[in-house]
Design goal:
Elements: E1 3-5, H1 7-12, E2 19-22, H2 32-45, E3 51-54, H3 69-72, E4 78-83, H4 90-97, E5 102-105, H5 108-119, E6 124-127, E7 153-158, E8 161-167, E9 173-177, E10 180-182, E11 187-188, H6 198-207, E12 211-216, E13 218-220, E14 230-232, E15 239-242, H7 279-288, E16 296-299, H8 307-313, E17 323-325, E18 330-331, E19 334-335, E20 344-345, E21 349-350, H9 353-361, E22 367-371, E23 374-375, E24 381-382, E25 385-386, E26 389-390, H10 396-402, E27 405-409, E28 413-414, E29 417-421, E30 424-429, E31 433-434, E32 455-459, E33 463-468, E34 471-477, H11 483-487, E35 496-503
Parallel strand pairs: 1-15, 2-3, 2-9, 3-4, 4-5, 9-12, 10-13, 12-15, 16-17, 16-22, 22-27, 27-32, 34-35
Antiparallel strand pairs: 6-8, 7-8, 10-11, 11-14, 18-21, 19-20, 23-24, 25-26, 28-31, 29-30, 32-33, 33-34
């Protein structure tokens, strides 16, 4: 039977040098009150120290909440940190940039499902995910700073083919969150926005001889939970912390609780706001033209997440003609953009975070729409380390590796001022930073590893490129845009130019479009 304790008591249970696992996305799954208590204990006593923190997706609100607390006390609390997305934990990220801790970034699906391998007593995870990218040890091995010396990934040959082997480890502590615990420590997720990897983390830690701590909002009497509602069984839970404030139990990065995100109500689609008419809307309209009825689509964070809104607002198109999804495990409905990314309005299903990556890695998607950071002439795309913005790949590497149609979308230049009107695009002020560069800083998508049966597009508001024979090729240009002045002069490399170069549909550049039904088939 689990023991009920305070957050302060939970912090006192964590030993020095522990490998600590957390799971979730945004603020979903993050035990905020326990995290603060760990920070405060370290400030007061210097313990626990030398922690090795393992996280999957970004965990925090890009402000003051989340795993960033574990860096707020300065160096020493966390000395090793690995995750798929680390950008939202500003205090830890700054320590990593100053080389005051080791930082590794690995594919989100690998991290999430590595817990399952550890739980089953296996030595690690064998996969092709990550070959040719910065996590390949022949490139960077996932090392994000000079302090990172640990080797977490190996190249192996198995049955005549190359694979990456992600090494297992023996975790000591799980820091998790659910909605409700009963007196035996059974945990439900009824108010959570998705089903995270908490079950697998708990099992991996428990089977490794460690302790499992779960923060919840509510406690109920034994016998009141339906067995199928329990997401972490009490046999895996050692300690339960009931939060003392709702501030420690936010459902997403942007709000405490919305019942439509947890599937308890259905939100009227008319209540979902349309996008304003600007370059983001044009980009998403052009991405939407690649959809086909019946497609299963993954939407990434940032501009791509707004694709669902485009489909929802277009006349003559039913959003249920497609199945939108995010890597969190939300399937169907209307995926939400930041600050609620990972949640979805009116989802058809919500599956375990790890199961979603099994679907993705196995080729279960028809199309994905992801961000465009910086691109070189070989088609490599970097979204994981831009300038001093150390973020990591999130699910990007998994999603792009096995999906037949991969769309990268974003503005052509950073901070350019453009105005769409009367079927044309006008450049009012050119951007400050180029995105099409001679060499990317980090390879998050490896153009040379793109599959022969993959279609890879790079969609911007002023031009569309396609990866053809592993070379970036210009295939469309926006009306009103000058090829030499507005495109080629703002690229560090000269792309191949299609002999069939054509104009983007000028209807995209009118405030009212109404043309999506012509393309989706």
């Amino acid at each position: 039977m689990a023991k009920f304790i305070t957050a302060k008591e939970a912090a006192e249970l964590i030993p020095d040098h522990a490998i600590v696992g957390v799971g979730g996305m945004g603020l979903a799954g993050w035990p905020e009150e326990v995290g603060i208590a760990i920070r405060d204990r370290f400030k007061e006593t210097g313990h626990p120290c030398d922690l090795n923190l393992k996280q999957g997706c970004a965990m925090g609100d890009w402000k003051t909440r989340g795993t960033t607390h574990l860096g707020e006390a300065g160096p020493g609390l966390v000395t090793r940190w690995s995750g798929a997305h680390v950008g939202s934990a500003f205090a830890l990220r700054d320590l990593a940039l100053e080389n005051k801790l080791q930082c590794h970034c690995l594919p989100q699906g690998v991290i999430v499902n590595l817990w399952r391998e550890i739980a089953a007593g296996k030595p690690g995870l064998l996969t092709k995910v990550g070959l040719g990218t910065f996590v390949d040890p022949r490139v960077q091995g996932g090392k994000m700073n000079e302090a990172a010396t640990d080797d977490l990934v190996e190249v192996v040959n198995f049955q005549g083919e190359e694979y990456l082997f992600y090494k297992g480890f023996k975790p000591n502590v799980a820091l998790l969150r659910g909605t409700t615990a009963d007196e035996n420590g059974n945990i439900t997720f009824e108010h959570e926005s998705f089903i995270n990897e908490g079950m697998m983390i708990a099992m991996a830690v428990k089977n490794s001889g460690g302790i499992v701590i779960v923060q919840v909002e509510y406690v109920r009497k034994n016998g009141q939970m339906k067995p199928k509602d329990v997401k972490i069984p009490g046999i895996l839970v050692d300690y339960v912390v009931q939060a003392t404030t709702t501030d420690a139990c936010w459902q997403t990065e942007g709000l405490y609780y919305d019942p439509s995100f947890s599937g308890e109500i259905q939100k009227p689609l008319a209540a979902i706001e349309n996008l304003p008419f600007n370059e983001r809307k044009i980009i998403n309209r052009r991405c939407a033209m690649e959809l086909k009825k019946g497609d299963v689509i993954n939407l990434g964070v940032g501009i791509p997440a707004d694709l669902a809104k485009i489909v929802n607002e277009e006349p003559g198109v039913d959003i249920d003609d497609f199945t939108m999804s995010t890597e969190s495990g939300m399937i169907g409905g209307v995926p939400s953009a930041l600050p609620h990314f990972g949640a979805a309005y009116n989802a058809q299903a919500c599956i375990d975070h790890g199961y979603m990556f099994d679907l993705i890695d196995g080729g279960g998607l028809n199309m994905t729409c992801l961000g465009l950071g910086e691109v070189d002439g070989d088609g490599n795309n970097n979204v994981s380390f831009l300038g001093k913005m150390m973020t990591g790949p999130g699910g990007f590497i998994n999603i792009t590796q096995a999906t037949p149609k991969v769309i990268f979308c974003g503005t052509f230049m950073n901070k350019a001022k453009v105005v769409p009107h009367d079927g044309k695009l006008e450049i009012v002020e050119e951007g400050k930073t180029r995105k099409f560069v001679s060499k990317v800083k980090q390879i998050t998508f490896a153009g040379q590893y793109a599959g022969e049966n993959q279609t890879v597009l790079y969609i911007t508001e002023r031009a569309v490129f396609q990866l053809i024979d592993h070379k970036v090729t210009l295939i469309e240009i926006a009306p009103g845009i000058d090829l030499e002045k507005d495109i080629l002069a703002n690229m560090d490399f000269k792309p191949e130019i299609s002999p069939n170069l054509k104009l983007m549909d000028e209807r995209l550049f009118h405030e009212q479009w109404g043309g999506l039904a012509d393309y989706i088939g």
